Amino acid sequence: MPATTEVKELPVLTLTFAPTGFDRDMTKENWQLLEDVKGDIPEGISTLNLELIPFLNEGESSVNGEEMKNRSKDLKAHHGQKLAELLLRNQSQIPKEWRQFYLAFPGTVWRSPGGGRDVPGLGWVGGRWSLSFLWLGSDWRSVVRLVRFRES
User: Fold this and answer.
1) Which of 1, 55, 63, 87 satisfies CB 3.0 to 4.6 Å to 67 for a cystine?
2) 65-84: buried (b, 16+ CB within 10 Å) or exposed (e) per residue?
């Protein structure tokens, strides 16, 4: 079921790019890659229109990480670390209105050395966007948004 939490319309981001692999390969930090969505950034396309969408349904204040991950598939917003890193490399183009949210990318799942399952995310910290990893075992609240390709 689509999220129905009302939010004012946010600007759409358009990026031009050349796809690459991981900039931050967590295997070098003793993490294990468990899942990585295929075709996260479509081949042969050089421009993306992106939008943010909520994953909570009306009346919800949070859901667990597995539910957020499942909803990302239903919402066509199941993207991974490669898209997060593309945004990070082009952070000057990310709309200022997006800074109020943490952007989650549940299409890539890592197991940390401590055993937790984590997904990449971007947050506005110290005047710039920063890549970090959030535990799927935590509650996911309305401050988090998913990134989706906007259909034109």
Assistant:
1) 63
2) bebbbebbeebebbbbbbbb
Q: pTM of the predicted model, to two decimals? A: 0.83
Contact 64, 107 (CB under 8 A): no
Q: How many CB atoms lie within 10 A of CB 127?
A: 7
* Alpha-carbon 84 to chain mean position: 6
Q: Are 113 and 27 in contact (CB under 8 A)?
A: no
**Phi and psi dihedrals of 133, rounded to 5?**
-130, 130
As given in the structure block, the two tokens for residue 6 are 């009302």
CA–CA separation, 112 vs 125, rounded Å?
A: 22
Structure tokens of 24? 């931050």
Residue type, 28: K
Q: What are residue 68's phi and psi, to 5 degrees? A: -60, -45
Alpha helices in the chain (DSSP H): 65-74, 81-89
pLDDT, one tens digit per residue, over 70-117 is: 999 999 999 999 999 989 988 999 999 999 999 999 999 999 999 999
